[in-house]
Amino acid sequence: MMLVGIVLGMVVGLVLGLTGAGGSIVAVPLLMAAFGWTLPQAAPVALLAVAASAALGAYTAWRRSYLRYRAATLMGLTGSLTAPLGLAAARWLPTSTLSLVFAGVMAVVSIRMWRQAALRPAEAQVVRAIVSGEGPPASGHLCRLDAATGRLVWTPLTAIVIGAIGAVTGLLSGLLGVGGGFVIVPALRATTPLSMQSAIATSLMTIAVVAGITVLWAALQGPGLPWPAAAPFAGGALGGMLLGRRLAPRLASAQLERSFAAFMLLIAAGLAGHAAGLW
Fold first, then answer.
1. Quick one: which of 98, 162, 241, 254 is 20 to 30 A from 92 by CA?
2. How far apart are CA 243 and CA 210, in angstroms?
3. What average pLDDT values come out for the chain (279 residues) when binned by 10 residues?
4. What are phi and psi of 92, to 5 degrees?
5. Domain limits at 251?
6. How many domains does the chain have?
């Protein structure tokens, strides 16, 4: 079990390091297939690896001054409040329903990733954990930045918007065991003028906080984590993420995004078919 956990963790971490997205969303189906777990059993273990990897990425971003820690803290707090609701819903909903919802989320993420790579090939690499280069400027944001400091200008509307993003992230983390970066990054980019680097860095800290607290809640309310598999899985994910970030600059980012999007779509189809009893 230990060796299998390390190998699976390396795969998940490698995906996260190469693409900056999708590592957490493939962790759950991999754990379900390898160990025969249900989604509620696999989700906390997947989140443990996600929390560790995101914390490492957030630390790196903080050293480079990309991290907007006040926004990440607020999103982490609101996400921590809604994560238990997601955990409760996961215990209440039938396993087949959860699997179908998870497959739907995977399909949405894969389609979005494919479109991003196809429509913006020059910017495809910005979905990775920490990237070089800025996304295109946007207008009409609900929140503003201080031109002198590059930090968010905190108003009641800013607090509501940032808090709402965190609340949705926490709910998804508890319900499906996903990190939520595919929600946080585009939401921050749509509602704030933050650069892509800052949005991803802030997302990583939020994911680390929400995923970590969700794992704690799951451990307190359930039978506890299967540490013989969980610890090697988390360790493998850390190693895989570091390796992926070293390899990423050497690979064609747009083709990488498309390949991974197609891979996720196949997994989503298989998971949905199994949940529907087709095989």
1. 162
2. 25
3. 86 73 74 86 86 81 80 94 88 83 80 68 41 43 82 93 93 80 78 80 85 83 79 91 74 68 78 73
4. -85, -40
5. 2-275
6. 1
Query: What distance in Å separates the CA atoms of residue 262 and residue 210, rounded to the nearest whole number?
Result: 28
User: Hey, what are 235's tokens?
Assistant: 């360790």
Round to whole Å and give the CA distance between 164 and 154: 15
**Contact of 23 with 12, CB cutoff 8 Å:** yes
Q: Is residue 28 within 8 Å of residue 18, measured between CB atoms?
A: no
Composition of the chain by helix, strand, coil, percent to 5? 80, 0, 20
Q: What are phi and psi of 264, to 5 degrees?
A: -65, -40
What would you measure as the largest C-alpha separation in the chain, in angstroms? 59
Is the distance from CB of 109 to CB of 260 less than 8 angstroms? no
Cross-strand bridge partners of residue 144: 153
Tokens of 246: 């070293």
Helices 23-35, 253-275: axis angle to 10 degrees equals 40
Name residue, tokens 């795969």: 11
Nearest to 9 by CA among 31, 42, 25: 31
- What distance in Å separates the CA atoms of residue 57 and residue 51, rounded to the nearest whole number? 10
Q: How far apart are CA 108 and CA 51, in angstroms?
A: 22
- Helices marked H in 120-195: 156-176, 181-191
What is the rounded distance in angstroms from the CA atom of residue 233 to the CA atom of residue 247? 21
Helix (H) or strand (E) holding 153: strand 152-153
